Amino acid sequence: MRPLLRALPWLYLALLYTFIFLPVVVLVLFSFQDGRLPVPPFQGATLRWYGEVLSDSRLMAALGNSFLVALGSSALSVLLGFLAACGLARYHLPGSALLRGVLIAPMTVSYLIIALGLLSTLNAAGLPLSLWTVGAGHVVINLPLCFAIIYASLGGHQVSMERAARDLGAPEWKVMWLVTAPMLMPALLAAFFLSVTFSWDEFIIAFLLSRFDVTLPVEIWSLLRSGLSPKTNAIGSLVFLVSVALLLVLEVTVFRKAGRR
Amino acid sequence: MSDSIERRARRRAWGLVLPGLAWTGLFFLLPFAVMVVTSFARREGREIVLAWSLQNYVDFVEKSFLLRGLVVSLEITALVVVISVLLAYPLAWIIAERVPARWQRTALILAVLPFWTSYVVRSYAWVLLLSRNGVVNDALLSLGLVSEPLEMASTRFATVTGFVHFFVMLLTLTIYANLVQLAPNLKRAAADLGANGWQTFRHVVLPLTRPGIMVGAFLTFVLCIGDYITPQILGGNNELVLPQVIMLQLGRRADFPMAAALSLVLMAVVTLVYIAVARWMKMERT
């Protein structure tokens, strides 16, 4: 009875890890399927589907669009978040609690509602849908995140250095660019990479606010309509690989360093 | 003199905050206001006419397929929250208490790794597993557990499974963060007072982690009830959740006013639950 009881947690651990990893393993395994359907039996390995993905111009265009939107919207989110955080953490403004609330607000609303609001507004204003509108929407969802991360790490410990720089005659923008920003680098990078992963994977805003130039999740969505295919598995596996690579970069560059200090 | 310095500092601060504020105003607050106004409008043919009528909300209550969307959403979300918490808590506890300290970070990263597959692709991967000729049916048939393949794809079961898969990872993270923050002294004190492992857990650990569970459960609730992808890919069209009904108004009927009204209903439900959770947290603390 005793050894059984002691083994129970490990059994549970194994079971849940199986549950968590099952879809990913099946996805990657059947991306090598030598046949038309990504279902059992497994008929042996081929790289054919990866070749088809890489030579699919629509998928590759969507991949490029995704990168463009993710990098652009994240950079802008970090910039706006950084400026707003500096303004609110370093100066006393009337109603600063309300300002913080407004900046954080989009975080509390579902993406579907944000997308729908933007779509209604663009329609009413007669503006066309494009990658720019998708990017604008992604800044809306990532700005609160960036602001919150950066604001939280703007403590009192950097203030004296900023003051020293000011005493030595640095203008305000130089203080921010050469003193505050480098000291905040871990937070800025964390905010940036998190935004990239969110924007890169975001579907509903990209789906509703794009027309001809679509991002990767939207292109995968339309691929799904043609039924199960090992090609979908291949592009899914590639997306997973990119996300994990981003995560590793973040872990090695930001969190390890932050933990060591 | 000092007044002018202060005024200059204030102007500089506004200059820093304004760009972000303007973005939020232009692309979030304004669209939101437009949506609220739209929800009181009416669709006439291809035109949207502002009528300031409550017709959309009346329709929501009276037309059963619209109201049904909310009911299905609430049922599925409740199921998902309960199952996810029940599965995630033991996992977080085992990682925090049984896995050696130097492996905990690795165990946690592994537990949330599939989190980073594309959301659309993850739902699709569950279709591969649950379809008629999919992996799960293949395994069940070859083990002789069933004689006919089970119909699992395009059911509520599939939707719930896909959601639970996603939220077990999320909840494991939040509950683990709560568990490792507990002071070990509390457990030692309980043991000194003669409590066995189960009693310590029941009367010390569980009550202290309840706020963490509530926060994680609320996050699960919000993300689950507002999601369109998982029910659309896994649930099929047999029973629609509210986001699917909203997208249907948009896609097939271009009925923006109705979609806006339904979205605001969705938001109202989330807000009500938020108020309930916030009040509960306040009560718990005092």
Automatic annotation (TrEMBL), chain A:
GO CC list: plasma membrane
**Pfam families cross-referenced by the UniProt entry:** BPD_transp_1
A GO BP term, please?
transmembrane transport
| Keyword list, A-Z | Cell membrane, Membrane, Plasmid, Transmembrane, Transmembrane helix, Transport
Its record classes its membrane topology as: Multi-pass membrane protein
**According to its UniProt record, where is this protein located?**
Cell membrane
Q: Per its record, how is this protein called by name?
A: ABC transporter permease
Tell me what organism the protein belongs to. Paroceanicella profunda
From TrEMBL, chain B:
Q: Which PROSITE patterns match?
A: ABC_TM1 (PS50928)
- Transmembrane ranges, per UniProt, are 21-41, 76-96, 108-129, 157-179, 212-234, 254-277
The answer to whether keyword Translocase applies is no
Highest rank taxon of the organism: Bacteria
A single Gene Ontology biological process assigned to it is: transmembrane transport
Look up and give the membrane topology term.
Multi-pass membrane protein
Query: Which keywords, in A-to-Z order, does the entry hold?
Result: Cell membrane, Membrane, Plasmid, Transmembrane, Transmembrane helix, Transport
CDD domains assigned: TM_PBP2 (cd06261)
Write out the annotated subcellular location: Cell membrane
Matching Pfam families, A to Z? BPD_transp_1
**InterPro entries assigned:** MetI-like, MetI-like_sf
Query: Chief location of this protein?
Result: membrane
Quick one: a GO cellular component term? plasma membrane
> What positions does the domain ABC transmembrane type-1 occupy?
70-277
Protein family: Belongs to the binding-protein-dependent transport system permease family. CysTW subfamily.
The protein depicted here goes by the name ABC transporter permease
Q: Which organism is it from?
A: Paroceanicella profunda
